[in-house]
Design brief:
- This is Lipase, GDSL-like protein.
- GO terms for molecular function: carboxylic ester hydrolase activity.
- This protein is an alpha+beta fold.
- The chain folds into two domains: about 160 residues, Jelly Rolls, CATH 2.60.120.260; about 180 residues, Rossmann fold (3-Layer(aba) Sandwich).
- The chain has six helices and 21 strands.
- The protein is globular, with a radius of gyration of 23 Å.
- The N terminus is likely disordered.
- It binds 2-acetamido-2-deoxy-beta-D-glucopyranose (5 copies).
- One 2-acetamido-2-deoxy-beta-D-glucopyranose binds next to helix 5.
- One 2-acetamido-2-deoxy-beta-D-glucopyranose binds next to loops.
């Protein structure tokens, strides 16, 4: 079965930590996050091991409870007003993690291996509130590429306990490259060489989003239209074979912009625009009745078992969502560009499949709340 890691294509292997500066509107962004490391012997804790069933692991975690890829996280309910986490020795020093309680804002802290970090205490804003979310929930997400944390143990105050929360009832699998993973965004999330993902341990995905091929489109890599479309077709067939009920969204590629005189234009050639949309039609047309031509080859349509899903391949046209200033100097979407694409994709999913966006949902962003502090200035 395909795994995301085997499909991610980018020309970088970064093993060690590189110190870098985040620029926010041209200014250096402060990264002096709260130091949460404590001496655990000074606390009385009730301790749960990393494999406690009360802890839900979201996204990619390996068998040693080490995090991989974009924004993997944990979530659980708890009693009391204290949450601490001990990180194992497979944690990269200084990894930035985001964490929050219930529906409140995210906080950030850098964590290190072989140490315990106190993330919630009675003085944490909201920790001692009376609700209304009950039980209190704790969520953590791991940021940064090639970095990871290893969960060793989770602690609550002595006599308190963790509570297993109901699982999410839907799953999305993203098959992508550095663009989908968020390379060069503030909290980028790439990885190197994780252990193979054990698909059998998670329920099937409801939705598979494919955004892959920008590197193949690069002339330097000399990938023919046929090779690209053929590979993409096989990926979709593989997904459908494994998860026959999954819907598949194929995103059109974008390749940046160039300035021409007094305006900007998208770089040409674009990413196999007509071929990809023809491939989607091919999946959805009636078998044997509507042959589709692409790359000069006439193909009979895909013989899918549509009894469960109907036409299951969908084309998400990204044209017009990003403009030239949504692409950073290193050819990847900026934070705003990434959020624009994600927001449009959410709306596409809502309109197409009727999924809900909740008024007080989980989508709270950090460091995106800029405002003018004076009226009429
Ligand atoms: C957690 O790991 C320990 C040590 O390997 C094992 O004894 C225990 O059964 C595991 N617990 C669960 C819930 O898998
Ligand atoms: C890391 O932790 C594991 C489990 O506690 C231990 O067996 C191993 O020796 C440690 N490795 C290093 C390099 O400290
Ligand atoms: C915390 O993480 C940020 C983002 O990676 C980094 O810029 C900063 O240097 C880290 N701080 C420490 C103390 O490790
Ligand atoms: C590109 O690939 C084609 C087909 O495999 C091959 O014939 C050609 O020599 C390649 N061109 C370069 C510049 O590598
Ligand atoms: C994508 O959208 C653009 C802008 O609306 C449109 O010109 C283009 O034809 C669309 N592409 C496909 C394959 O539908």
């Amino acid at each position: 079965m395909l795994s995301v890691s085997s499909l991610v294509i980018f020309g970088l292997t970064l093993q060690s930590r590189v110190s870098a500066t985040i620029l926010q509107n041209g200014q250096v962004k402060p990264t002096n996050y709260l130091d949460t490391r404590v001496d655990s012997s000074a606390y009385l804790f009730t301790t749960y091991p990393a494999n406690a069933t009360e802890i839900s692991y979201k996204g990619r975690w390996d068998s040693k409870h080490v995090s991989w890829w974009s924004a993997p996280g944990i979530k659980f309910g708890y009693t009391g007003q204290t949450v601490a986490i001990s990180f194992g020795n497979l944690t990269t020093n200084g990894v930035l993690v985001a964490y929050r309680i219930s529906g409140l804002d995210w906080s950030f802290t850098n964590v290190t291996g072989k140490s315990t970090h106190l993330l919630v205490s009675p003085s944490t804003p909201g920790a001692a509130s009376a609700g209304p979310i009950s039980p209190w929930t704790f969520e953590m997400r791991v940021t940064n590429w090639a970095f990871g944390v290893q969960i060793e143990a989770v602690h609550v105050a002595a006599g308190e306990r963790l509570i297993k929360l109901p699982d999410f009832d839907r799953r999305i699998e993203v098959i992508g490259d550095s663009l989908a993973a968020g390379m060069y965004t503030s909290y980028e999330g790439l990885s190197n060489e994780p252990e193979p993902w054990d698909f059998s341990k998670s329920p099937p995905a409801d939705l598979v989003i494919i955004n892959i091929g920008t590197n193949d489109r690069n002339a330097h890599n000399n990938v023919s239209t046929f090779a690209y479309i053929d590979a993409l077709t096989k990926i979709i067939q593989g997904v459908h074979g494994k998860w026959p009920k999954a819907q598949v969204i194929v995103m059109s590629l974008w390749l940046g912009f160039y300035q021409s005189g007094n305006t900007y234009f998208p770089n040409a050639p674009q990413g196999w625009v007509s071929e990809v949309s023809q491939m989607v039609n091919w999946f959805n047309s009636d078998y044997l009745r509507d042959p589709v031509v692409y790359d000069g080859v006439t193909k009979k349509s895909f013989k899918a078992d549509r009894s469960q899903v109907g036409a299951f391949v969908h084309y998400f046209n990204t044209t017009g969502i990003m403009q030239h200033n949504d692409i950073g100097p290193q050819w990847h979407p900026t934070d705003v560009g990434a959020i624009k694409v994600a927001s449009h994709l959410q709306q596409f999913i809502r309109v197409k499949f009727g999924w809900d966006l909740h008024a007080t949902g989980p989508e709270v962003f950090h460091d995106t709340q800029y405002w003018n502090d004076e009226p009429g200035y």
